[in-house]
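Take a sample.
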Amino acid sequence: MNSFEQSLKPSFKFAASAFLILLLVFIAACGSSSGSNSSPAKESAGSSAPVSPQASASSPEASASPAAAAPDTTPETKELSIGSGRDPQLSPLIVIAQEEGYFAAEGLTVKLELFASGTDVTAALASKSIQFGASGDIPFLIASGAGAPIETVAQQADISGVQTLIVNPDKIKKPEDLNGKKIAYVPGTVTEALFLKVVEQYKLDAQSITSVKSGPAELLPAFQNGNVDAFIIWQPLALKGERVGGVKLLTAKQSFVPGQEGPQKLIGSYGLLGGHRDFLDANPNTVKAVLRALGQSAEFIRANPDRAAAHVGKAIGLEEELVKQVLPLNVYALDITPELAATLEEISQFLLDNGKIKALPNLQEFIDSSYLQEVDGAAVTWTP
């Protein structure tokens, strides 16, 4: 081997080695490129490299996954019986929700059961024969004071303006003339509370007054026949009393006494929506669906009073013109307000003082505002 060949050999070996290294790098790069482009769908799905369940749960990729599904709001119970007094105070929101399809839109099929009074509605609730009930506040408070597990989920209306004292004008012209007379009312309802408040407000001689406790349907015939001199009742029976010669002397929020006319609050009164605690606890979605439907009904009454009157009159068997006169006397709303709570406290104390209940109801248990809070937070302004 000559000197030229000897000098060439190391250079050749170096070049060959460099070439071999470059070739291996090129092959590796091609293999990597080929593997990454062979399945774009899998790469986009994140399947190009296996990931353990533990890593998947805690990795940044997992936190960037689509949001969890919205909670199920399907009503737990879709077929309901809702009870109400047969009057235009307690029934309108329920009737309209049924007639205008608000219940159906919430996935509910509702049977409206009409009772003679809120006392009967409350008894049906306590026995679980109906799922919801619309009653005046006093039957609910009396039941709660006796330990019945009935809870209020919303008011339906301020019904103070329809609680009315109708008198025989030939015998009674001012409250003091009630002494020595016969006065009828429905026991266990706001009419009894108003009677007691009238006696207190005008310092009447309670011992001289004959109290006649009667069902709503018996009051008007007793008045017409002269068996009682006055009666206290809600609308539209009060209007019917005026039609047969009676005179409106006062309501729970207004005086019509000659020379003393004007606003005066004797007692507040609310229509309430409630249910048995067992049902409410087990069916929160159903409760909220009912509240959404009734909220639409309240808006409908404000926007369409004549159509509302037509719906209510047909459902409860009352002439439409009477309903048109009554609806404006009530304030329909689902609100849970400090005013509502204060009125319930006042009525409860009044009932206790007059021996109608043995213990004051706990309003924090009597009112469950959580359902309405979720449906319409602005409607709940009372904090327990």
The radius of gyration is 37 Å. The longest strand covers residues 150-158. Residues 1-65 have pLDDT under 50 and may be disordered.
